[in-house]
């Protein structure tokens, strides 16, 4: 997660009514206290990349686990949502399912600086953690990074999508037998027809019978 987003999350006041703001009061700062729950929330805006993403306001299913530790609250979860975008090969609209796992430490506001690090395992490097605002934490920045990083960079409508015809732009999946027998660029077809007419005209003139008056040398 970028330093800018972390700083924004640390400084922004939290709205407890927001579906992505979680209340940790039940944990009571007791190490080992645990809370697991699921909820469905509307997707925040700009949750995607240029070619695919989660539509703003569409339902996202969250499975969450909040665990109280010495340094703060460790949040582990899974997000599931419906993606909409377009196939990068044939440009047709597509829909896919998205599932993203995440884990983030939210430290207590009065935590010692030396404890503001979380080991998430899997040989991941320690990173500076978010802070709780009172008993509240904002899940949106964590959720956003997890979902965006899970998105396919080259989404396709099907794995073997043949794409578009490079000559005419036709969608090849709709016409498996699509072919161009002529190798001539259609932009030159009209010129070729004109050239052929001129050649035929010249042949007609050459084959036409001549009279004595038609000879330019005759006087």
From TrEMBL:
Residues 1-26, 195-219 are annotated as: Disordered. It comes from the Bacteria. InterPro entries: YceD (IPR003772). Residues 199-219 have a biased composition (Basic and acidic residues). This is YceD family protein. It comes from Streptomyces chitinivorans.
